[in-house]
Structure formats: structure tokens, C-alpha cells
Specification:
Layout (H helix, E strand, L loop, with lengths): L2 H15 L4 H21 L5 H25 L5 H23 L36 H12 L3 H12 L4 H8 L3 H15 L8
Helix pairs in contact: 1-2, 2-3, 3-4, 4-5, 4-6, 6-8, 7-8
Length: 201
């Protein structure tokens, strides 16, 4: 993502306040690529046809959540929109992992993701690009649930950096803090989430 994305969200929100309901569709597209990427990587070791179908299901489910939320109220700012979208994305991804862990789907393979970092504990400098993921569906559920338990600032850092793929500079601007503060929030969150991440083999 780039500053253009943040500016685009602001422009969509302004259009919405002026009565342009098509702006809601534009807002949904802002998060589609990031959500699709997360879902695709969570399912990347499943057969291709199954993976593509389920990624589409996740996108549709999240879009429905967002659409219903956006029908109720206009987010106050891009910051509020990104945090709302991240929360709903997380809920949809948790539901997806529960779906795949059902007994009637026991024959499906669980994912086996390998971390790309050489460090077991240090958070990645670019979390939106990392391949450091929970190793299986049970750990995915634990990861997403653990994010919900973080402090507000730590959770927002994870929401903006990991779920939404923003840069630390963008996150700092949205949160109204300096980049060092964002790094501190992200590092503190990573320490609390580290045990849901597999060690490098």
C-alpha cells in the first residue's frame, strides 16, 4: 500500500458524506487485495482449486460484514475505517479456520507455513511483507484471538501494519504518533504473539 491508498479512503469517506453511495463499493475494494492475500497464504498448501474457492468465500464473507457495518454509519476517518476493516477481517479469518477444523473436513490438509525470518523473536521490519505465519489452522485461530487481547495501541499497530499492510509512516500518521512509537507498539505486540509463531527449522 501507499499514501495514495490512505488518501483514497479519505476521498471515499468525503464522497459518502456528500451522498455518493458508490463510495462504499470503492471502500470495499481498498481492503480486497490485502484480505485476499492473507486468505490465500493461509490456504496455500491446499489443492489449488480448493484454495481459490475458499479464498473467494472469505472475500465474500468479509465484504458482507463490511457492507453491513458501512450501511449503519460512516467511519469518522481513514483510521477508523482501517481499524474497522481489520477487526472484521480478523473475525472472518477466525471463522474460516474454525470451518476448516470441523470434523467433517478432517481429510483436508492443514497448512504448514515456514517463517522467513532468521530470528525467532524479533519482529519483521516490514510486517506487511512477512511470510512469518502461524504454522497450522489451530495456531491461526490462536493468533487472531491473541491479537484481540492486545492493548489498544498494540492491537491498532497490528491492525494497520499486518492486516491492512500500511507502512509504519502511514500508521504513525493515522495514529497521530511518531514512527518510533509505532515501532514500540509493534515490537511489544510481536513479543506477545511470538509463541503462536513457529520457530525456524
Amino acid at each position: 500500500m501507499s499514501d495514495v491508498t490512505t488518501a483514497h479512503v479519505e476521498e471515499c469517506l468525503e464522497r459518502w458524506r456528500k451522498g455518493d453511495l458508490r463510495s462504499r463499493e470503492d471502500l470495499l475494494r481498498v481492503t480486497s487485495n490485502r484480505l485476499g492475500d492473507l486468505a490465500h497464504r493461509m490456504l496455500r498448501n491446499f489443492p489449488v482449486q480448493r484454495r481459490e474457492a475458499d479464498t473467494a468465500d472469505v472475500l465474500q464473507g468479509c465484504h458482507l460484514r463490511l457492507w453491513r457495518a458501512l450501511q449503519k454509519s460512516v467511519p469518522e476517518s481513514p483510521r477508523h475505517y482501517f481499524n474497522l476493516a481489520a477487526q472484521l477481517m480478523r473475525q472472518e479469518l477466525i471463522d474460516m479456520t474454525r470451518h476448516f477444523r470441523r470434523p467433517d473436513r478432517a481429510g483436508h490438509r492443514e497448512i504448514n507455513l515456514t517463517p522467513a525470518s532468521d530470528s525467532d523473536t524479533a519482529p519483521p521490519d516490514e510486517p506487511w511483507k512477512t511470510t512469518l505465519e502461524p504454522a497450522d489452522l489451530a495456531m491461526w485461530t490462536e493468533f487472531h484471538n491473541r491479537v484481540e487481547q492486545l492493548s489498544p495501541t498494540e492491537r491498532e499497530a497490528v491492525d494497520l501494519l499486518w492486516y491492512q499492510g500500511l507502512s509504519k509512516t502511514e500508521a504513525a500518521q493515522l495514529m497521530g504518533v511518531d514512527v518510533r512509537s509505532v515501532y514500540r507498539y509493534w515490537h511489544a505486540a510481536w513479543e506477545k504473539l511470538a509463541d503462536t509463531i513457529p520457530a525456524q527449522e
